[in-house]
Amino acid sequence: MASYLILGAGKFGRLALRRLLAQDPEARIHLVDQRAEALTGLRDLGGAVKATRAEAGEFLETHLDHNDPWDWIVPMVPRHLAYAWLRSKALKAPEWEPVPVPSELETLTDLAIRGPEGELYLSRARHLCPDDCSEPEVCPVDGTTREPPLYRQLAEFPFSGGEMVVVASLPLAPGVGGYAPVCLRQILKRAGRLPDLVLVATACRCHGVVHGLRRREMKKR
Questions:
Q1: Which residues contact 207 (CB under 8 A, 6 or more apart)?
Q2: What highest taxon heads this organism's lineage (predicted)?
Q3: pLDDT digit string (tens) for 108-120?
Q4: Where in the chain is the domain with CATH 3.40.50.720?
Q5: Residue 195 to residues 60, 98, 155, 161, Cα–Cα distance (Å)
Q6: How far apart are the first and last CA of the chain?
């Protein structure tokens, strides 16, 4: 029996809930969403499901500590939650500011899209992936290899100007990925030793997002 924190109760959050319960009916699941209507009807799904109405990033910021009751965090919102959590802790403004991710990382995948802060959204697929993909070593759609995993490529990328920190999202059920809370806390412990330029990435085998942060030169009073 495992415990899961699912952040986001939309289409994919509900899908994650159903699939996790299907493979482990005894699982303990905490579902968080800021929309009250998204949290209705949970009793019909069975299992030990707890619902909380809150914004996902704010909930993670205030509830993730050394005594958290979850084995896995399952992010299901359109936001880079690991990055947002680190920004709310050690890598916060005004000491740290967003910067564009170096263009060299665009070569890692077939598809690379820039976001508004210069972040990179990376994907090895130009097709629509099946929502129940189990992340095999060979893509079930186009037959191409998916080795090594993107999270490993990012961790091993020769980024000489700073440091890359990577949160690896692992398959927990068909089409459902997540990471252990300790992964975030380990990065937080390193925060004081990080260089002035940091890339924060979350990635699974085929898809990922990377944000850049730079330490500002604070004027002494």
A1: 122, 123, 124, 125, 150
A2: Bacteria
A3: 999 999 999 999 9
A4: 1-79
A5: 25, 14, 16, 9
A6: 54
